[in-house]
Amino acid sequence: MTAGELKALMSRRPAILAPMEDVTDVVFRRMCREMGADLTVTEFVRADNLVRGDRFALRKIVLAPDDIPTAIQIYGSNPTLLAEAARLAEAARPAFVDINCGCWVPKVARGGAGAGWLRNPTAMVEMAKLVVGMVSLPVTVKTRIGWGPESEMPIVDLARRLEDVGVQVLTVHCRTAAQGHTGAADWSWARRAREVVTIPVVVNGDVRSADDASRALAETGCEAVMVGRAALEAPWVFREIRSWLDHGVRLPSVTIAERLAVYRRILRDNVGERGPLFGVRVTRRHCKGLLAPLPELWKPLLTTDDLDACLALLAEAAERKAA
Fold it and tell me: Are 226 and 190 in contact (CB under 8 A)?
């Protein structure tokens, strides 16, 4: 994807699936795209692991022919390794390369990666400049509004400086690193960042529904919204967003039968990608979200390793609800 193509995509008010570790693998990306996600992002890939050829890191950047448009997100604390990782990611032909400067998880941020870059915005800008110079694909950055409870968050000045070094899109998760996922996201910071740059800005944080997406775009003037944890529980949120933004039509609530069908589809696809045992086990991360109205299924699905047994549980539940 060229910079022009990325800008054109951003002009269509896309709803984007956020990168989430252990969640946004090829199976879940495919499901969300079919549900209406305009763009998806991989799990974040550790730069030094990718550079040294770690098989798990390499697996994360493999994109299937139908896995488009998808961006590869990289993270790390070493600018040189990030630049080299970006070059390796580019070879996998993603839509663009995204740099994670927003992960607040202590084991990531304490070492200077993810949101750790917000402790030194100047170093963050220099790192981004190095990465931009390494690849021909567009480079984007996902970050937070600041590290901690500063009276003035650095995001506004940082947005200007990142644009100056060639970053093509900025995604702003509207919480500080110190907040993690607590407290309300303050979308006003995305608006302030958007007002000082010409590149597209994506608003992220507390976008859980079509109404949230519409309000976030209206209040911030941002080009796009990014959906994270809400998609894990309800991947159909993307079709709801698209229906409301494009046609002003609210879709009916998802039925129990549809929830069971989505879980069944993800289960089968995970088994196809990872084999019967691991495929069943990784699908468990979706159990309590997709099957929230069916708590009686949680324990058996979370403790059953056999695919046929899981499918039987889903079929029995569907029959009971249809009766």
Answer: no
- CB within 8 Å of 14: residues ≥ 6 apart: 38, 39, 223, 224, 225
8-67 confidence digits (pLDDT tens): 999 999 999 999 998 999 999 999 999 999 999 999 999 999 999 999 999 999 999 999
Token digits for 16?
A: 């984007």
Structure tokens that stand for 323 in this block: 């009766």
Catalytic residue among 103, 174, 222, 287: 103
Report the distance separating Cα 186 and Cα 38, nearest Å: 24
Task: Please give the Cα distance from 78 to 88 (Å, whole number).
Answer: 15
pTM of the model: 0.94
Coil, strand, or helix at residue 188? helix
Active site residue 103: yes
Q: How far is CA 58 from CA 50, 66, 206, in A?
A: 6, 18, 31
Q: What is the mean pLDDT of the chain?
A: 95
DSSP 222-237: -SEEEE-HHHHH-TTH
| Token code pair at residue 139 | 């480079």
Strands 139-144 and 169-173: parallel
